[in-house]
């Protein structure tokens, strides 16, 4: 990876992960899953680079996920979310405060486990007032290509 690409990724992280301390590094490991979809390893941090150039935290690293705002969903939503569905208002039972286009994590109501990460399609205040509609664009979820690829990659790191 070129120095210019490394700087671009680190600047993108600093902007979208404002509350996370990004390590100063010159080396980023990239594992391409498929075209325009990669897993990034930056020191001990793991991130997901999506097709739309969003850099999201990896679901398996909960210490970083705790820093981001979240929504809590009912148990009836879990199977749909873990198949890539967008997070819809009727399934959400709890909200943290977030702004439109901000990274938001999705947790289940019973065990508080992380199920997915996406970008907010609405501000949390507006979303709470809605009765139906799409709230979060689901970009990374348990069991997706990133999740399964990391299992293989983690043996090589």
From TrEMBL:
GO terms for molecular function: RNA binding. InterPro entries: MCT-1/Tma20 (IPR016437), PUA (IPR002478), PUA-like_sf (IPR015947), PUA_sf (IPR036974), Uncharacterised_CHP00451 (IPR004521). It comes from the Archaea. It holds the Pfam family PUA. Residues 69-143 form the PUA domain. One of its GO terms (biological process) is formation of translation preinitiation complex. PROSITE patterns: PUA. PANTHER family: MALIGNANT T-CELL-AMPLIFIED SEQUENCE 1, MCT-1 PROTEIN. This is H/ACA RNA-protein complex component Cbf5p. It comes from Candidatus Nitrosocosmicus franklandianus.
